[in-house]
Specification:
518 residues, mainly beta, six-stranded mixed beta sheet, five-stranded mixed β-barrel, 6 helices, 32 strands, elongated, disordered N terminus, signal
């Protein structure tokens, strides 16, 4: 009890002394100029940004911002996030529709395969929101009669966290209905390497793959075209071969440059890159034959078996198999190992095609080559296959009645009518490594057209000597390498759709235990 009385007495003395000091000095009044020079920090602050754009433009707004000076931390899961369902953008859909959404801190590291990792588990981490604010876009801010609220935005000076949608990164052939179902907003996809390959195919047996050419001989000229009907059951192929020309698989490796995606109610990412080079395609006699019909008989012959290479020639794509290795260790037959070694010794790189003559020696002149083939590649990726949305600098969620360019947003980030979600940081897809080869069925008709166009030129005309023409008289097949068929400037079109993404998009649960979502 004594200690309590002592403390009370001391406190009373201090307060009395302070009151006496204030009474003696008094409060000093400050002018507006002096107040403007005073510095301090408030919990809340209000800012205003004047209109900057032309009258009626997406920047012709006054922006009033109410901000909180502080740092917030949050870890949250949302089962369903649906905004703008129905409304101004139409019934039957939502501006933003995400299922199984989780917000946490950024990963502490990434595994070798790209999987996000947290030292103490993802549920123990928190997203950090520095100086959050709410902002209003006011049209005609200086006119009390005409001013109106056109939009509202939730954002922060800096946001650091990982937003995920969905519970699992599925592989090829699997589908999911959760994750991002509909997205309205702005995002960027970072540079993305793609390692793919085309599917081996047989060319020339369908009507959309017919080729036409001009044949010139010393005894007459004729036009020639693919006899599709006879190659599909009408006439048997010569012994040891088949109708149609084999087109070997080819590597398609390229990098998608950083791409911006924006729009309303998007369910699919559409990425396009043009001019992807494809290695030259070698076609040899061993790849098959085409049954050709001549419009004008040459020495009484009106049909011909045509090979686009010297007799006994073969094409081969070089494998990554050392010359010193055994055929069995590389999964090759003895003759394939010989081809591979001879082409490697000739300087043909792994993944490139080369030509071998009847003696199995490298001979570029024994085959036909399709050269300078390029592809315009389109990737169509459903949004629900995209799971991880990192936020390291900024982003915002807004609602507006008209298009608005919010202060601080990227110059091309124009928020559209309705709800809008914007991410400044590019998404990392990791590497796209399709597990299924790219079908060539859409490309082969284009190649047929390119070959026909080439054959119509003086360089592409088939010139037969008298020996070749007499051989036709006696029913002998025609072996004629065509050299380089240059298809530059006429790209093929390849479409990659809903590719399984690697573990850079792996979903790590934001729950303790074995729960995928909580």
């Amino acid at each position: 009890m004594k200690k309590i009385f002592q403390i009370t007495a001391i406190t009373s003395c201090i307060m009395a002394f302070a009151a006496q000091s204030i009474a003696q000095t008094g409060l000093q009044a400050l002018t507006d100029q002096e107040l403007s020079q005073a510095e301090g920090q408030a919990l809340l602050n209000l800012g205003y940004t004047e209109p900057t754009g032309a009258k009626g433009s997406v920047s012709d707004f006054g922006f009033y911002k109410l901000g909180l000076e502080g740092e917030l931390e949050i870890n949250a899961n949302i089962r369903n996030l649906q905004l703008g369902c129905g409304g101004v953008n139409g019934a039957g859909g939502c501006d933003i529709d995400m299922e199984n959404v989780a917000l946490s801190g950024l990963p502490d590291s990434y595994a070798a395969d790209g999987t996000p990792q947290w030292d103490n588990g993802r549920p123990s981490s928190s997203a950090k929101i520095t100086n959050p604010f709410i902002e209003f876009a006011i049209r005609n801010p200086t006119s009390s009669a005409l001013r109106e609220v056109s939009g509202i935005r939730l954002s922060a000076e800096q946001i650091s966290g990982l937003l995920t949608a969905g519970v699992e990164n599925l592989g090829a052939g699997q589908t999911t209905t959760d994750g991002i179902k509909s997205f309205s907003g702005y995002l960027q996809v970072a540079d993305t390497p793609v390692s793919s390959k085309t599917e081996a195919a047989v060319f020339g047996k369908t009507y959309d793959q017919m080729i036409y050419a001009q044949v010139h001989t010393l005894v007459g000229d004729s036009s020639v075209f693919s006899n599709i009907q006879q190659m599909n059951g009408g006439t048997a192929a010569p012994s040891g071969t088949h109708w149609g020309t084999n087109v070997a698989e080819q590597a398609v490796n390229f990098i998608f440059p950083q791409t911006t995606i924006q729009g309303n109610r998007m369910s699919q990412l559409n990425l396009v890159v043009e001019g992807v080079p494809i290695n030259p395609i070698a076609i040899a006699a061993g790849d098959g034959a085409l049954y050709m019909r001549l419009t004008d008989n040459i020495l009484t012959v009106n049909n011909s078996t045509f090979y686009m290479g010297e007799e006994g020639s073969n094409s081969w794509t070089v494998k990554d198999c050392a010359v010193s290795a055994s055929a069995a260790s590389c999964g090759l037959s003895t003759v394939q190992k010989t081809w591979n070694d001879n082409l490697r010794n000739a300087g043909i790189a792994v993944g490139q095609m080369g030509c071998l003559n009847s003696s199995n020696a490298y001979d570029q002149g024994a085959c036909t080559y399709i050269t300078n083939l390029k592809a315009n590649v389109t990737v169509k990726q459903n949004f629900n296959l995209v799971h991880n949305l990192p936020i390291e600098s900024g982003g915002y969620l807004s609602l507006q009645k008209e298009s608005i360019h919010w202060p601080g947003a990227n110059s091309d980030d124009i928020a559209q009518t309705g709800w809008w979600m914007s991410f400044q940081d590019p998404l990392n897809f990791g590497a796209l490594n399709p597990t299924q080869a790219i079908s060539m069925q859409d490309v082969l008709p284009q190649i047929a057209t390119l070959i026909t166009d080439y054959m119509a030129t003086p360089e592409g005309r088939i010139d037969l000597g008298i020996g070749d023409a007499l051989g036709q008289l006696f029913g002998l097949p025609l072996y004629k390498p065509l050299g380089n068929i240059d298809v530059a400037g006429k790209p093929a079109v390849l479409t990659l759709e809903n590719l399984p993404l690697d573990n850079h998009q792996a979903v790590v649960s934001n729950c303790w235990g074995n729960l995928k979502f909580c």
